[in-house]
Structures are given as C-alpha cells and as structure tokens.
Amino acid sequence: MVKLYETGAYLLNGKELIPDTPEGQNELSNKGISVSKEDAAKGTIAHSILEKHNTSGNDEDLKIKFDKLTSHDITFVGIIQTARASGLEKFPIPYVLTNCHNSLCAVGGTINEDDHMFGLSAAKKYGGIYVPPHQAVIHQYAREELAECGAMILGSDSHTRYGALGTMAIGEGGGELAKQLLGRTYDVKSPKVIAIYLDGEVAKGVGPQDVALALIGATFKNGYVKNSVMEFVGPGVDKLSTDFRIGIDVMTTETTCLSSIWKTDENTKEWFDVHYRPDAYKEMNPADVAYYDGVVYVDLSKVRPMIALPFHPSNTFTIEELNANLKDILHECEENGRKQLTGDVEFNLTDKIRDGKLYVEQGIIAGCAGGGFENICDAADILKGHYIGNDEFTLDVYPASMPVMMELVNNGRAADIMKTGAIIKTAFCGPCFGAGDTPANNALSIRHSTRNFPNREGSKIQNGQISSVALMDARSIAATAVNKGFLTPATDIDVEYTGPKYFFDKSIYENRVYNGWENAKADEELKQGPNIKPWPAMPELTDNLLLKVCSVITDPVTTTDELIPSGETSSFRSNPIGLAEFTLSRKDPEYVGRAKEFHAVEVERENGGHPCEVYPEIKEVMPVVKEMFPGADRTNTGFGSTIYAVKPGDGSAREQAASCQKVLGGWANIAKEYATKRYRSNLINWGMLPFVMDESAFAGADAENPYGFENGDYIFVPEIKKAVQEKAEVIKAYIVNKGMKELSLRLGDLTDDERTIITSGCLINYYRDN
What we know:
single chain, 770 residues, alpha/beta, seven-stranded mixed barrel, 32% helix, globular
C-alpha cells in the first residue's frame, strides 16, 4: 500500500523513478542522462515556487514573502493586535479574516461576536477581507477564492494546505503572519522535498481520508517527511478528482511536513473554471529530470477503508483489520490511551463490542477535510433510502461552505441525507476542535475531520469526562450509519455513485463577504469588546536566568491541544491573561498555580524589589548559585518558569500554546526535540528559549525518572544572553538543587532576527526596538 524509499530518487518525465543508488546511477548513464543531484533538485515544483518567493538571494537560507494571508477568529485578533503594537498601518497583501471557529456565540456572553466585530472593523480599517460566520470554513474559502497555481499562502491555522490547487501553503503561529503584515519575511532553511508518488487507482468506496490516513500512518512516527515539502506526482494523480486530491492534501499537516504541492492538469483547470477563476490556473509539472530527497510510493489500488483510533491520526488500521482483530486492537488502544490520559477517568473501547461488532455512538462529516462536495454527495448516495435508526447513533453533516450547501440543496442530496434522520448544519470547524457535537461520556465518535487528540472532541478530563474520536472517511461513516452505528467499510456497501456535477454560486460571497482589499479606511474605529485585551508587557532577556521547572511531561509526544486546550477556551483567545489560566489544564492542572507563583518573583525583581521577600525559597537557591557564580544577582538574573516535554508541539499552529506560557512568566521549553517547526517558531516569537538537551544529558538518569527533571527543580543558565548573541553551540546550565549538576543545552539553528527577538523578549518588543 505505502512504501518508503531508503534513499532519494530521480523522477524522469514525471513518471519513472530511479533510486539514488549505484545501480540507479548506472541506469541514468545508460539512458544518456548526465545531471548533478543539485541541478536535478531544482527541477521540483516546490523549488520553483520557493525560488520565486525567496528574497534572500541564498538558496539555503530562505526569506519568503507570501502572496496572501488567511486567519480565523481564534487567531486574527491576537495577530492584528501584535501588528498594531508594532506599527501596522494597512494590510500590504490580501488578508482574509474568516469566522469559522468561534462561530457559536453561546459561550462567554458577547465574547465571540465581539471578536467578529473587531475583525470586520479591522478589515475596513486596514483593507482586509471579512467572511462572516457560517459562510465558509477557512480552508474552503481559501480554495474557492484565494488559491492559484504557483502562489504561496500563509495561514494561522495548521491545516493551511492548498497544494492540490497548485498553491504552496504553510500554517504557522500568529507571529509569522504579523511579520508579513509588517513587511518582514518568513525565514526557513531550504526544506527537503519528498516525492509522494501515486500509482494505480482507488477502489470503489475508498475515499481521500483513507489515502491520507495510510500516508500518515506510514510517515508520522518515523518523521520521514518532517519539516519537508510533500510533492505529489505520478500517474495516480491523474485518476483523482480535484476534490479527492484536496481531501488528501489537507491531512498532510498530520505528517508534520512543512507544506505540500501537487502537479496540476486539466482536472485542476476545470476546478478553477467552475469557480470563475480561470486565470488562477497554470500547468505545473516537475522538470524532465527532478531529484527528490525521499519517496513515498503509494499504490492507490491497495488502499482500503481506514480508521485512526484514539488518540492520534497516525494510530491507523484498515477497518477490515480492526474488525478481524477487534478485541485485541481495542484493548491495546485502551492501554496506550490510559498511559497518555491524566486524571480520574475510565477510558474504555472494548465495551463497545456488541455481538462481535464495534458500535459507535456518533458520526460527523465536517470541516476542511470532510465537508467537501464530493465527500458529501458520495455519502448521500450510500445513505439514500436508508435511515440511521432511533438508538444512540447520530449523524451530523457540515458542508464546508455556503456555496457547497447551496448546491447540495439544489441537487437534492441535502434532502436525501435529512430523510435518513441525519442533520445538516452550516459551515463550522467546531466538531474538529471540541466546540460542537461533544459526545456523551465514554462515547466513541467516528469523524471525517482532521484530528482525534485527547479531549479534542470536547470532553473535559479534569471533570472526570472522557469520550473519544476515531477518524474515518465520509463514505465509511455513511456505511456505518446505514448499519445504524455498527462499524462498516464503504467497500461492503453495494451502491452506484452518481457523481453529480458541481455548480458554484459566486453570488453568495459577492452579496455577503466584505472585501476591503486596497481600500483601507484609516479613520475607521476598531470595535473592541470588553474581553479584547492587549498583550501584557514582557521583559527582555536578562544576562542570566534562574528557571523553575513547573511541569514535566514524559509522553512520547505532547500536542498543542494539551499545552493549551481547544474547545470552550477559544472564547478567551483575545484575552491573553484570561486564556493563560487554561494552560496545561487537561494535562497538568497544577501548572498554572506553580508558574504564577514563581512569576511573582520576576515581577518583584522588575519593580526593583527583593525576590526573596515574595518567595522565601530564593534564599536557599541563590546562595548555591553564587558559590559558583558570585556575580549573579537580581540586577542581572531573571526568574521564570520552564516546562520539560519529550517532543512538544504536535498539531495546531495556535501561537497561544507558547504565548500563554510567556504570559505566566515562562522563559523556556526544554525538550529532546520539537514536534513541528511552527511550535518552535511560536516559542521564539514569544521570546522563549527553545532548548534541546544533548542525548548525553540522559546518560546518568535513573529508571524511575529517565528525563532527569522533577517539578520544583531549579535550573541556572549563566550568561544566556551572551550565549544567544554569540551563537554558542552548547550552553551550559546547572540543576541547582541537585548540587549544581551540569547540563548541556542547545538552541539549534537560529537566524540573526530570531536571536534578536529572543533577547528583546518577544516579537512585539523586537519591532518596538527596531
């Protein structure tokens, strides 16, 4: 089904793969092909797009300027507030503000609608584009109205992926969008380009989520495509509709790649024609000889209906495999889940086995992954003439945009779905991040959406609740609905897919979306509700640091949802201090109290006071430090918190995963590695040190505490400001309360601007000072 090459490979004429081995080199010679690997690497589609947008003049250290930006209502307030504090006058490129996350104005009173009104007033003042709630989810609007072949789009949502439409798109934290709004660049090392070679043709009943889950299962855990560009090529691409390609493409985020791009063809052209944007299309193919740093070979004909069990999109099985080994697989999933969960909850899956079959309580087809036209039409064909029953199982369908909804109404598919007992709702991202359709306690939901992290479905582990999500394709969700909640792959259903033609009604957006691009109204007043607060002042980096470990997380991977929970907390995204109260609340509920308590020490120091007066423990710690570093004192030593996690930052691009730690007095993260570039960038943009520990640091750790840290440990980092400025490769630090035990820390590659951002204290300070 999926095979990973152990070497790079050459692609000839977009079809033939030649591995980069001695045998492969001989084959190239026999074909009369003489080209260096470096020159052939310039033949990828990705290279041509990056080269066009790079302003550095350096092929290795890229400084990218994007063509367009897009954000939603969890992120755009903070981004605009950051840019305003740094001198924003007007949006320099088209910037779309969608309202698809905090769409429900039911939690926190006026909070969400106040954010929407802020967005509309900002679009007027700075010349932006405002998409009202329920009109479209962020990525569907971007596909329909923004994407164009050869362009680059930066979004503040991690699933910013429009590669199937020839657009290289990247999801990052808000700080990176603020840089673009201020005319700065997105700085990144030239990424590897990995060929995703599609061959064969999918079987009837197999959908895009099935292919995507097969890819994620094969590449996430081994990091094969981490921080790389996935370039989709091969003859199998030609046999997929554009909607199908989009459904695969949006899920590439879950592999931890940087971005994605697909070759384009007549199918892509037709898609743009249907959306009244023919000028956005151009044919894009790799050069006759192109070199890729790796290859993921996918035989589409062997892909079967897939399921990703809790609690990660990479926890994949074929549905056939799961049904054949139901008890064993579910029991293993329970055991792994219990290790990952914290709190007094009982996580069960095996109790859902009824008469040898898996029963689920809920089905959802929604959002940027599941809410596409073809997904819903195929699901409607399966559902037609059936009913979902009147027991626990429910089915909700969310078309990704109002134009998609309109066409489903016009062609009768909406009626077919509703006759089954299923519910159709407006465009909304809520089911994907826990702000809608939360299942009952201990229920299992199957969803064609993007993620199934713990509590991502909306349950609150801190309140003793636990439900969970398994990811599936819309077709198999519909097949399960036909069987009234008993897990069924779509390949088991005898159905003729009708494949109706899509007609896009552009008047829906023309009549409702505010388009202020190139029409900024400087005199427009920003509407700021009482929950919209500015960022608090943040100190610059001091010469030395005394860090207190306030959370130790030993899970193999820590998601941004665990660092700052999604769901109901999103109502506080425009209030940095209010939101910070939720930091790590589902993973380590005591963290906020620990961090705030120690933050008071730094506040006292900044105000010229004596830290030991507010935190007597300092009287015991600083004398130990001064024995080795007698010059360290409150005039040159900052006091702040840190967390240790093995591999933090998988998942969402939300910058609040880092900014909330900073608001609570965080100065650093310490990790073995960072799951994604975007989380590490978020730390840097909020002036936090992204420390990585040398493997040697773990050599003396005992079996009970293999990571060497405990809550309450103090870490002294001498001359840290100098180390950052002078690009020290290894930074010596000391665990104070373990007899000044020496640690070797690293910061990895940092650009000169990133070093200045860190020493300035955060991105806002950096712009203020420069």
